[in-house]
Amino acid sequence: MFYRNKKLLILFSIVLLILGLIFVSKVSAVSVSVINLPNEIKGEAFTVTASISGASLGQNYLRVDLYKDGTSNYFGETFNGSDWYSGSEGKLYLPVNIDSSKLVLATITARLGEPEVNEYSGVGMYKLKLRRYTSSGNQASDLQTPADILINFLMPTPEPTPTPAPVSQNSPTAIPKPTVSPTSSPNFLSAEILEENATDEPIFEEVLGKASESATLGALITPLETIIPGKKEIVLSARDNKIAIILIALGVVFISACVILFFWTYIKNKKQNE
Predict the structure, then answer these.
(1) Helix (H) or strand (E) holding 32
(2) What's the first-to-final CA gap in the chain, in angstroms?
(3) How far is CA 73 from each of CA 53, 70, 119, 140, rounded to the nearest angstrom?
(4) How far is CA 79 from the centre of its chain?
């Protein structure tokens, strides 16, 4: 009894294995083949004709991949009918409808795009294959043999961005102040003093007149006018300074004479009173 059950178990396992192989073969029977492509790529857009067989009914999406043999650094852009695309969203690639015949011929337009240095190393032989996405946008695993293609194009070297020259922020140069050489202080009499004394002594009017005349003739030794905040001074000539000194001396003599006359009168009156 046990032996008979063992034989049935083995037979059932073999049947399951055969059914699994048939199912796997049906699932993986989708193949994608490149049947037409250019001899070389020179930088402009190019077209590839491919056949798809065994895919499920519905909408599929195709993408062109370029890469160096032995690497998985894919590059290239695929035209989806309205724009160029090279991202990871499967439904944004070229749509292809799989009908009941399950055999589709599709023409895909592609271009190099802007590959990185580790993707495109320059002129040489590269591999080209098609990547298929299912109606859900997931990448499919298809049977295909990549095609060899020559890429004969030199990528333009990006021009270095010029570095702006630093702008020096120089502090403003101090303008030196003009140095005024010292001059000897001129002897002068204030115009206010002259005017006050001119009301009492006629001789000061003569001094003022001479000073005015000297200013008109430009015969003064020092500048005629010196501006001091809040006060205007009239500088007299050397001759007028001598006249002023004489006048002062006469004033001292006059005062001394008055003092002597006062004491002499005082002593004389005192003697008379005795």
Answers:
(1) strand 31-36
(2) 192
(3) 27, 9, 5, 19
(4) 38
Cut 0.90: pTM above it: no
- Alpha-carbon distance of 29 to 191, in angstroms, equals 125
pLDDT tens per residue, range 223-254: 444 444 444 444 445 566 678 788 888 888 88
DSSP string, 45-107: -EEEEEEEESPPSEEEEEEEEEE-TT----B-EEE-SSSEE-SS-GGGSEEEEE-TT-EEEEE
- Quote the radius of gyration of the chain (alpha carbons, Å): 60
Residue 211 has pLDDT above 80, yes or no: no
Q: Which CATH class is domain 30-151?
A: mainly beta
- Which residues make beta-bridge pairs with 148? 127
- As a whole number, mean pLDDT of residues 175-188 equals 54
Instruction: Please provide the size of the chain in residues.
Output: 274
- The band of 269, judged by pLDDT with boundaries at 50, 70 and 90, is confident
* Residue-range domain boundaries for the chain: 30-151, 191-273
Distance CA 42, CA 51 (A): 25
Lowest mean pLDDT segment, chosen from 61-65, 77-81, 103-107, 191-195: 191-195
Q: Any idea what the Cα angle at residue 226 is, between residues 246 and 206, rounded to 5°?
A: 35
For 228, counting Cβ atoms within 10 Å of its Cβ (0-12 exposed, 13-18 middle, 19+ buried), the class is exposed
Please name the residues in contact with 123: beta carbons below 8 A apart, sequence gap of 6 or more.
151, 152, 153, 154
